[in-house]
Design goal:
Layout lengths: L2 H10 L4 E5 L23 E10 L11 H22 L4 E3 L4 H7 L4 E2 L5 E2 L7 E9 L24 H5 L5 E2 L2 E2 L16 H6 L8 H4 L14 H6 L2 H5 L4 H7 L8 H11 L7
Antiparallel strand pairs: 1-2, 2-6, 3-6, 4-5, 7-8
The chain binds iron/sulfur cluster (SF4) (2 copies).
One iron/sulfur cluster binds next to α4.
Length: 272
């Protein structure tokens, strides 16, 4: 199998793009401090594979987190793809790679003022799944070259800064600990997050206003997704269908119920 064949297989699993980059050769990157990379650990690795899952948001007033639902779908697609590759004899390891650092270093995309990766054609509405690929009999993958240049948009735009409900973007740049996204994967959120949150499981405000995403039209969620995120059901603690959609790992400790209660307390049900 080679790069082109793997791209076709990835597309069959629902991925919109696949980038082939060198393995990380740095221990840590300031933008992704939670990923501590041991460069010695995978001497067999030849390629970092970045799989791109592209998605459209749901209307903001639905409060349904399209990102997390697609993240869950892309995770399962990646597991299925990896199984197929392994069955074909490909040496690989699914693991979290320092995507921001790789994307910047190898010219795959740009990092915006809101700290998000923007890819040509996809904007910031993407989920990455990653794995390392090695050399094995009959299989040869190699890094490719990419030449995306800084587009200069952030130099003349302040849309995300003006719209951020948490004031996480300002003169000092993007401040990760003020950003709601920073807390989503943890066991619970600080109280201030519940009080300014507008979407379940995070915040998509700076993506909604970003001109890099202007071509991506929000789509209506399917009925079963709407039902899973019914605010009254969630407020009553019936969260299982929604947890299955976004992944159980991120939704423990009654987070969805607490979010729904906060939305109701703020009277947002009447605005729908
Ligand atoms: S909204 Fe404007 S300033 Fe913010 S990331 Fe997008 S282009 Fe850059
Ligand atoms: S995700 Fe929300 S809180 Fe974080 S920078 Fe964007 S608008 Fe602000």
């Amino acid at each position: 199998m080679n790069n082109e064949e793997l791209k076709r297989l990835a597309a069959a699993h629902g991925f919109a793009e696949a980038y082939f980059l060198p393995p990380p050769d740095f221990a840590r990157h300031e933008d992704e401090p939670h990923i501590v990379w041991n460069t010695e650990e995978h001497p067999w690795a030849r390629v970092s594979l970045l799989l791109v899952w592209s998605y459209a948001p749901y209307p903001a007033d639905s409060r349904i987190p399209s990102y997390y639902i697609n993240s869950n779908s892309s995770y399962h697609a990646c597991v299925a793809l990896a199984r197929e590759l392994e069955a074909a004899g490909v040496r690989l390891k699914r693991c979290e790679l320092p995507v921001k650092a790789l994307v910047q270093r190898y010219g795959v995309g740009v990092i915006g003022r809101n700290s998000l990766i923007a890819l040509p054609g996809f904007g910031t509405r993407v989920v990455f799944q990653t794995m390392l690929l090695g050399k094995a009999d009959g299989h040869g993958f190699s890094p490719e070259e990419y030449h995306v240049k800084e587009d200069g948009l952030c130099a003349v735009c302040r849309a995300c800064e003006n719209a951020c409900p948490a004031h996480a973007i300002g003169e000092a740049g993007y401040e990760v600990e003020k950003c709601m996204r920073y807390y989503m994967d943890g066991a619970d959120y600080p109280e201030w997050v519940y009080s300014v949150q507008r979407t379940h499981m995070g915040c998509e405000v700076c993506q909604a206003v970003c001109p890099r995403n202007a071509h991506i039209v929000p789509v209506e969620p399917p009925e079963e997704i709407k039902a899973a995120f019914d605010i009254n059901a969630l407020a009553e603690g019936r969260t299982k269908p929604a947890r299955l959609l976004v992944g159980k790992n991120f939704t423990g400790n009654g987070k969805l119920q607490k979010e729904a209660l906060h939305f109701l307390m703020r009277g947002e049900e009447g605005e729908r």
